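Is iron/sulfur cluster placement plausible here? Inputs below.
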Amino acid sequence: MLKVEKSRRGRRLKTKNIYDLDPERLATTDEHGNRVYLYPEDVKGVWKSRRKVFYWFLIGLYLVLPWFYINGKPALLIDISNREFTVLGSTLHGVEPILFFLLVASGIFLVAFATSLFGRVWCGWACPQTVFIQSIFLKIEALVEGKARERRELDQAPWNFNKILKRTIKWSLFTIISLHIAHTFIGYFVGPRELFAITMHAPTENWGTFVATMLVTTIFLLDFGWFREQFCLIACPYGRIQSVAMDENSLVVSYDVKRGEPRRGAEGVERSDEGDCINCYNCVKVCPTGIDIRRGTQLECIACTQCIDACDDIMTKLKKPKGLIRYSSENEINGKPRKVLTIRSSIYISISIIFVSAFLYFLNASTNLNLVFLRAKTPFQVIESGRTVVNHFTLKMTHQGTQTYKVNFAIQNPELKDKVLVVTPIHPTMVDIPEKKIVIFFKFSPQILIAGTRAVLVDVIDETTQQVVASKEVVLVGPAH
Ligand code: SF4
Ligand code: SF4
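Reply from A.M.:
I modeled the complex. Tokens:
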């Protein structure tokens, strides 16, 4: 598309292609720093087809997962208020902050590892921002307002009935979709059945959930409908740090400079000396962040592969080999071999393995039965005319797993087995909640004490399997001889 510049007398001075981007600023910003709205053109091609299938798989997964029940529980439920995390039918109770930290840290370093190998692959293939905008919001926009050129013209046209009608239809559809996405999102935190029940009541009965849902809806609506690439360019933290994770061996969407340059129309270059790039700007027209990939790898590139398909289409029409723009590393483009595992990527994967291992260790430890003996205010009582000492405790048994235990208690020390009696109110004791407290007594002869104390090991035995599921040392106290 040509931009015509005129003199004050209205004479045509020169023409400029609007896709010939200013080298000094982003395509999404004008000379005054105002936002320039983008109208990326649609594209067809192998990469688009692959992404389409993957995007709809992700959308399906996102929409279906909370409604999918395993063992009577949602496939994924993050109950923040109760610190419970349900995944594939198993619930972790009272999730410790350390587990959450290790999970997030593992995720960050795994993404950094993936970025060091494959560049901004997350942004182009799996980020909800890209997935929802490309698969749903841009489709609705094209359906209501037409192709890129028509959308641009509609935007620039004065407000009239047609524009108001199209905008109303578009934003109404955006709102319906955003409501649905937001309800599913909230469903991951309160449970889909509960959310469905809540939506059947007046908002005044569940103000908290209602306000949260409306807030999330508004964020999705404004982000996917209006803010779009601005989020990737100026707000996304991952976008800012990706350059640290990438190097010349990372596989990114690249333009083959050696093959493409000098491009058509380059000053002082004969047609016979031109490279394969015919300067059609199709790669720029389809770019959702408005960049020209021919200027090299840029922070703004979200690796969506749209420009690969656009250029491959041109190359096919010109009967030239595809791949002028392709997935490649800087080294490969410069004729050097690509190292898959570099020092940088090795460091990322090593740190990831450490964090994942620590997470699994703490996860395993947290699903075991943990015992805490809390001594009563009066440490001991002497009964039966001094022949028996009683120690009184509150025993707190906790575990984050799903298992229910029916347990009995026994003294492990062979020499004390028959000399210390463990007394609990109910035999066996049922541990069917994440945190169970019981009263427990130890009765023994003062003869077993050494200088008024004696350490004993208490075993918790699963009544069904007769296996020891936990043990803890308890210090018994009594009168010093
Ligand atoms: S689509 Fe290909 S041929 Fe056209 S400008 Fe981009 S790189 Fe050059
Ligand atoms: S340069 Fe290509 S891969 Fe990068 S964001 Fe633009 S269209 Fe997508």
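Short version: Residues 1-31 form one domain.
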